[in-house]
Design a protein that fits this description.
This protein has 393 residues and is an alpha/beta fold. It is built from 9 helices and 15 strands. It has helices at residues 58-69, 106-112, 124-135, 175-178, 191-204, 210-228, 326-330, 343-350, 360-392; strands spanning 35-37, 46-51, 88-89, 93-97, 138-145, 152-158, 163-168, 183-189, 237-243, 256-263, 273-274, 281-283, 297-306, 309-318, 333-334. The strands form 3 sheets. The protein has a 10-stranded mixed beta sheet. Strands 1-5-6 form a 3-stranded antiparallel beta sheet. A two-stranded antiparallel ribbon has the order 11-15. Helix 1 packs across helix 9 (360-392) and helix 5 packs across helix 6. The longest helix has 33 residues, at 360-392. It is globular. The protein binds adenosine-5'-triphosphate (ATP) and ribulose-5-phosphate. Residues 52, 54-60, 197, 200-201, 355-356, 361 line the site of adenosine-5'-triphosphate. Keywords: ATP-binding, Calvin cycle, Chloroplast, Disulfide bond, Kinase, Nucleotide-binding, Photosynthesis, Plastid, Transferase, Transit peptide. This is Phosphoribulokinase.
Length: 393
């Protein structure tokens, strides 16, 4: 049986260095922060936050999520779009990358000896003002951080969408921004797996050396521990990725053990369960209906506490051999928020090319995407009913 370890209950870490960061303003204040009215009604935009360190799967998760929400989210078009924009705009959802709120460009960070993870390199006041404006139905002129040049480009206009996804290093760091979120997710990748993913990507795609990758991870680690990692205590759902326990000593991340930690009591979010809600289950599905090559697959489900919150935890260790057999696993899970039988399996097959599609990272990202779709639909329906009631009165 897998132990669902309790985490420390006290929230001792803070995202801003003692008494300073979030009120610091930078040269970025020259950027226009004006907002303008649009047709969207007050507080109609649902805001979802996705937090993780760099290279930990935020973009992959957002791709799965926007696919579940419907339509394709693409870089902005029309006007004079910035080809290096970080924004994605779809029929239902707009995705903002919070790197756009870096207040110091690459050279200024280097000169001041700060990493992009440090709140002093980011403008949380502007982030709050603009997320608030979008949530209230007002368009904003949002700055653009250019990852190619490392410079701050002129702002781009963002209209209020039905669903706003804010993804990046700090969606839950500033209390004011955190309070605007209708739901939040933290992607918690263990050091061993993060290192393995980064090596695979940065050596294969970016030509970096092993030593430079190690050095860059080490350099960011103190700020990661101080400002990024503490956000997980606020998340409604956490996807934790750890080395497998099926192969002793294995830590290359190719066979991950993935835990979906779901807070109890979150409005519009009923945690997923395996077999029987409220029980403790360990399940090896390999056999006639699910092919498993070495080292096999093991699921677990149970309860625990996470930073003082009651949570339920679904865990998968191992890899799928054949994605088209996934429906067997799906049929044993409940509260999936699917619209038809087999929707999880179908989504996984559609995105079979994305990283993690053959293991618990892809499975749990897909499930969280479906839960978020239902949550958004319920919030929109609830607000519409409240508006209708107010009109009657
Ligand atoms: N589930 C996964 N399994 C294996 N590798 C993964 C997984 N998710 C992400 N990766 C690796 O990490 C890389 C970065 O993923 P992704 O672009 O989704 O992360 P990100 O957090 O958006 O990164 P960045 O902040 O650097 O833009 C991928 O190219 C892949 O190499
Ligand atoms: O953490 C990051 C993205 O999530 C980047 O490191 C950060 O945005 C700084 O960018 P650059 O690599 O262009 O200096």
């Amino acid at each position: 049986m897998v132990a669902f370890a309790a985490h420390t209950s006290a929230a001792t870490s803070h995202c801003s260095p003692a008494g300073t960061a979030i009120l610091l303003r930078s040269g970025r204040r020259d950027f226009p922060t004006r907002v303008s009215c649009s047709a969207a009604a007050h507080n109609k935009t649902v805001v979802i936050g996705v937090a993780a360190d760099s290279g930990c799967g935020k973009s992959t998760f957002v791709r799965r999520l926007t696919s579940v929400l419907g339509g394709v989210a693409e870089p902005p078009r029309g006007g004079n779009p910035n080809p290096d924009s970080n924004t994605l705009v779809g029929d239902t959802a707009t995705v903002l990358c919070l790197d756009d709120y870096h207040s110091l460009d690459r050279a200024a960070r280097k000169a001041r000896g700060l990493t992009a993870l440090d709140p002093r390199a980011n403008d949380f006041d502007l982030m709050y003002e603009q997320v608030r404006a979008l949530k209230d139905g007002r368009a904003v002129d949002k700055p653009v951080y250019n990852h190619v040049t490392g410079l701050l480009d002129p702002p781009e206009r963002v209209a209020p969408p039905r669903i706003l996804l804010i993804q990046g290093l700090h969606p839950m760091c500033d209390e004011r921004v955190r309070d605007l979120l209708d739901f939040s997710i933290y992607l918690d990748i263990s050091d061993e797996v993060k290192f393995a993913w980064k090596i695979q990507r940065d050596i294969a795609e970016r030509g970096h050396s092993l030593e430079s990758i190690k050095a860059s991870i080490e350099a960011r680690k103190p700020d990661f521990d101080a400002y990024i990692d503490p956000q997980k205590q606020y998340a409604d759902a956490v996807i934790e990725v750890l080395p497998t326990q099926l192969i002793p000593g294995d830590d290359d991340g190719k066979v991950p053990r993935v835990r979906l930690i779901m807070k109890e009591g979150v409005k519009h979010f009923a945690p997923v369960y395996l077999f029987d809600e409220g029980s403790t289950v360990s399940w090896i599905p390999c056999g006639r209906k699910l092919s498993c090559s070495y080292p096999g697959i093991k699921f677990a489900y149970g309860f625990g506490t996470y930073f003082g919150h009651e949570v339920s935890v679904l865990e998968m260790d191992g890899r799928f051999d054949k994605l088209d057999e996934l429906i067997y696993v799906e049929s044993h899970l409940s509260n999936l928020s699917t619209k038809y039988y087999g929707e999880v399996a179908q989504q996984m097959l559609t995105h079979a090319d994305l990283p993690g599609s053959n293991n618990g990272t892809g499975l749990f990202q897909t499930i969280v995407g479906l839960k978020i779709r239902e949550l958004c639909e319920q919030i929109v329906a609830e607000r519409a009913a409240m508006t209708a009631d107010a009109v009657k009165v």
